[in-house]
Amino acid sequence: DSVQDECPVHRLRWWASMCDDASSQLFPYSRDVFVAAMYDVTVKALGHESIDSRIFKGHSLRRSGAQILFHHGVNLEHIVEMGRWASTRSLSIAYLRDGAYKTGRQAELTRIMFDPSRFQK
């Protein structure tokens, strides 16, 4: 993995290249569909079918995303900019402290989320 893979601009270019038609919607999913899909991916990655979906919110992605980037060696200033935090201090205090980061689980979640077969036409 490289910083280029984690860069939202590069990921967006990749995503756009997967579209059939230049006039199609860039993000064709509603918030509800996206959250439901994230729940399904999380359940699959964790291997627990009985997880209460109410514990997963959009904010869970913000914290997990910050932790994944941090643990992959992305510079704190870059994480702050991508996540629009006020400072590296606010990021560290609120999002990187006491992280329940599990490398194996996060790696599996990432593999599932970015599996090319999910984007096949």
UniProtKB/TrEMBL annotation:
What processes does the entry annotate via GO biological process terms? DNA integration; DNA recombination
Annotated GO molecular function terms are: DNA binding
Q: Does the keyword Magnesium apply?
A: no
Q: Which keywords does UniProt give here?
A: DNA recombination
Write down the superkingdom of origin. Answer: Eukaryota
Gene3D superfamilies, alphabetically? Intergrase catalytic core
List the protein's name: Tyr recombinase domain-containing protein
Q: Which organism is it from?
A: Perkinsus olseni
